[in-house]
Amino acid sequence: MKVIADQDLCCGSGMCVMTADQVFDQREENGIVVVVNEAPPPEQHEAVRVAAAGCPASAIRLVE
Fold first, then answer.
1. Contacts from 9-16 at CB under 8 Å and sequence distance 24+?
2. Which pLDDT belongs to residue 41?
3. pLDDT (0 to 100) of residue 55
4. What is the structure's pLDDT at 23?
5. How far apart are CA 64 and CA 17, in angstroms?
6. Residues 6 or more apart from 47 whose CB is under 8 A from it?
7. Which of 21, 38, 47, 54 registers the highest number of CB atoms within 10 A of its CB?
8. pLDDT tens digits, residue range 2-45?
9. Could you tell me how far CA 22 lies from the centroid of its own chain?
10. Is the pTM of this model over 0.70?
11. Cα separations in angstroms, 10 against 5, 41, 42, 49
């Protein structure tokens, strides 16, 4: 799995960080998503899928 986040679409809700904090973070100054692990291990895949599905701005894309 590869995780891609579109920072231009991100609204800074932080749902991804709350769901998969080993993969996502937010910029201090504006809350925009930062992917800290583009290729998470298999045990984190389900949390990443939940984070992507729950993103209110649809800013997270997964390449399986």
1. 9/57, 9/58, 9/59, 10/57, 10/59, 11/56, 11/57, 11/59, 13/55, 13/56, 13/57, 15/51, 15/54, 15/55, 15/56, 16/51, 16/52, 16/54, 16/55, 16/60
2. 98
3. 98
4. 98
5. 20
6. 19, 20, 22, 23
7. 47
8. 999 999 999 999 999 999 999 999 999 999 999 999 999 999 99
9. 10
10. yes
11. 8, 24, 25, 16
Report how far residue 3's alpha carbon sits from residue 31's, in angstroms, rounded to the nearest whole number: 18
> Which domains are seen in the chain, by residue range?
2-63 (3.30.70.20)
Distance CA 44, CA 6 (A): 20
Place of tokens 């984190």: 44
| CA atoms of 8 and 44, how far apart (whole Å) | 25
